[in-house]
Design goal:
By secondary structure, this protein is an alpha/beta fold. It has eight helices and five strands, in the order βαβαβααβααβαα. The longest helix is centred in the middle third of the chain and has 16 residues. The relative contact order is 0.17.
């Protein structure tokens, strides 16, 4: 009976969700919630050029109602090697064929391996068996750590290299619900789940006010997705930037 003192709600299983504050990670968080998980959001402040995404992640976590949100700091600028962590220009105005070919200079060396390892450590600590990551193998700009075979390899590593993985009958699962979706499909999924994309930031090279450049790979893919849905992008763009 509803409200019976003899019935207690079934607790939601915990999951760790990597949350950058962009379209893909925000949609992934919404999917994790829709699947019945209690999401623990992990955001990494790693010295990225587009640090405005950190505030976006906080907005998203608050709006979607996570169980806990941690912002962990590490300095990948000490290594550099990427336009996101060193003084290397961010590529602009690349064509769809250029975006989909090769590994761009915005690739951060081993970033998803580092991030997933930290998410795994937190998951093992809180007794969670599920990790969520918003990678995409269609509109993924050539990043090697967004491919299905990479995710499968990390999942195997998680179960071989942790105390929980070798001492329990249960196994860690890395969920990548967006991996075979186009940006249009990702946005459509999130909108159906009530995501407010005005809260999110995708641009690799925003200005100090947080306005998007409209020309980097992340902006172009995002704008393409909204255009294919016949909708304006709610993100703020610099004056003079075309958003349709």
């Amino acid at each position: 009976m509803p409200g019976s003192p003899y019935l207690s709600p079934v607790p939601q299983p915990a999951a760790v969700v990597l949350l950058s504050g962009g379209v893909d990670s925000t949609t992934t968080l919404a999917v994790a919630k829709a699947r019945g998980f209690a999401p623990h959001a992990l955001t990494l402040s790693y010295g990225q050029r587009h640090a405005v995404e950190l505030e976006a992640a906080r907005r998203v976590a608050a709006a979607l109602g996570v169980a806990e949100h941690k912002v962990l700091r590490l300095d990948l600028r000490a290594f550099g090697g990427s336009a996101l962590t060193a003084d290397i220009p961010v590529p602009k105005d690349r064509s769809p064929s250029q975006i989909g070919h090769g590994i761009p200079v915005t690739y951060v060396p081993a970033r998803n391996t580092i991030f997933l390892s930290l998410a795994l450590a937190w998951a093992e600590t809180i007794g969670a068996w599920d990790l969520f990551l918003g990678v995409n193998a269609l509109d993924y700009s050539g990043y090697p750590d967004c491919r299905p075979e990479y995710i499968a390899a990390f999942e195997q590593l998680a179960n071989l290299g942790t105390k929980a993985g070798v001492s329990s009958m249960r196994k860690f699962t890395v969920h990548t619900p967006l991996i075979r979706m186009s940006k249009r499909e990702i946005l459509h999924t999130g909108l159906n789940l009530g995501v407010d994309y005005a809260l999110t930031v995708s641009c690799y090279d925003p200005d100090e006010a947080g306005e998007a450049c409209g020309a980097c790979d992340a902006c172009l893919l995002r704008l393409k997705g909204f255009a294919e849905l016949g909708m304006p992008d709610p993100a703020p763009y610099r004056t003079g930037t075309l958003t349709a």
